[in-house]
Design the sequence.
């Protein structure tokens, strides 16, 4: 099996699971319990919280709220802060943000979408033109999950604040955290991350927020997470998240350099008579999106799966749609929209896998092209 759909989810790191395994056997206590076992479990959660937070933000100005996933983190940031005025976001947002915007629009909120450039990054000037004195929140995804484009959120958030210093700024950092260098600045108010994108387990995410920003709870109940997210904590998931995050950041640059070579190696070997590159060379090393002329990406994905190569057609969270709204917003020709393939990498991938995958992809595409003709 050659797995090249790591933007959808990753294989859990053995070391991360082993590091947290003790939690299953010894830390089964409720972290809110007042006796020794509960207190110890609570302390380990707090240690994990600070370990993850310190990787991307200073602990003096930011705090981290554990959630069940990146989607919940996005929802909490949006529904907990958009109380007035308008909401500005890019056309390239993940479904976890985009669908929230649609719901807010149904509730009567003025929602404004900023267009994308060809690579999937937001058109910054167009975005800023939508911000006014009534803008409550601006959302710009850090790394586009379909094209891999990197938005300069530090610069964008600074320009947003210059235009309206009361406007809050959020970024979905799920495809950036543990993959590219990140350091949150004073102009970034919310940043969402997810465990299963970096070799930890599904069922755990987090919202990082600036301490001075007020945020209403999204889930009410027992008052866990300092009253900001009720519900008994997923201890095993949280400890696995912390272990995986530390491992990822320990080799971030070296992994990025090697994966960049693998990404370019794959594109170099793809048949240019069939495949058109959609991703920018300046995007994240972890994503390569291409489009096959005259072919259906879904059909290719099934053919490749039968031959042991697993790739995606775009966002796994939007797989029921005919073609990607994000890729369409990039201005890709209609004849290419149905033929999108997304290859996404992990440090576990090898050059030998890339060579074999390219050969299988080209063979399958040529076979399918022959059927179409």
Sequence:
């Amino acid at each position: 099996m050659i797995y090249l759909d790591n933007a959808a989810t990753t294989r859990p790191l053995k070391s991360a699971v082993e590091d947290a395994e003790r939690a299953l056997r010894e830390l089964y206590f409720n972290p809110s319990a007042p006796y020794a076992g509960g207190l110890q479990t609570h302390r380990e959660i707090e240690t994990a919280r600070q370990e993850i937070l310190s990787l991307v933000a200073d602990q003096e100005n930011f705090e981290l709220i554990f959630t069940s996933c990146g989607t919940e983190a996005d929802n909490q940031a949006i529904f907990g802060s958009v109380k007035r005025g308008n909401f500005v976001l890019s056309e390239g947002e993940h479904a976890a943000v985009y669908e929230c915007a649609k719901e807010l629009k149904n509730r009567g909120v003025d929602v404004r979408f900023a267009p994308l450039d060809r690579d999937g990054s937001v058109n910054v000037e167009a975005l800023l033109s939508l911000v006014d004195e009534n803008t409550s929140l601006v959302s710009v995804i850090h790394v586009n999950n379909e094209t891999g484009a990197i938005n300069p959120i530090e610069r964008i958030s600074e320009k947003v604040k210059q235009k309206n210093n009361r406007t809050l700024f959020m970024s979905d950092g799920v495809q950036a955290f543990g993959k590219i260098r990140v350091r949150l600045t004073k102009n970034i108010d919310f940043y969402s991350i997810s465990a299963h994108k970096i070799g930890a387990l599904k069922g755990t995410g987090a919202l990082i927020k600036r301490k001075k920003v007020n945020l209403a709870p999204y889930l009410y109940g027992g008052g866990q997470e300092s009253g900001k997210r009720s519900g008994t904590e997923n201890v095993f998931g949280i400890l696995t998240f912390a272990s995986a995050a530390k491992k990822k950041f320990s080799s971030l640059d070296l992994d990025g350099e090697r994966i960049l070579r693998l990404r370019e190696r794959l594109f170099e070997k793809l048949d240019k008579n069939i495949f058109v590159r959609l991703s920018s060379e300046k995007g994240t090393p972890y994503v390569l999106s291409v489009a096959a002329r005259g072919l259906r990406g879904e059909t290719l994905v099934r053919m490749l799966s039968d031959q042991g190569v697993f790739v995606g057609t775009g966002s796994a969270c939007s797989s029921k749609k005919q073609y990607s709204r994000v890729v369409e917003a990039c201005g890709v020709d209609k004849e290419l929209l149905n033929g999108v393939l997304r290859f996404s990498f992990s440090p576990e991938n090898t050059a030998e896998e890339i060579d074999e995958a390219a050969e299988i992809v080209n063979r399958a595409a040529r076979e399918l092209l022959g059927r179409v003709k």
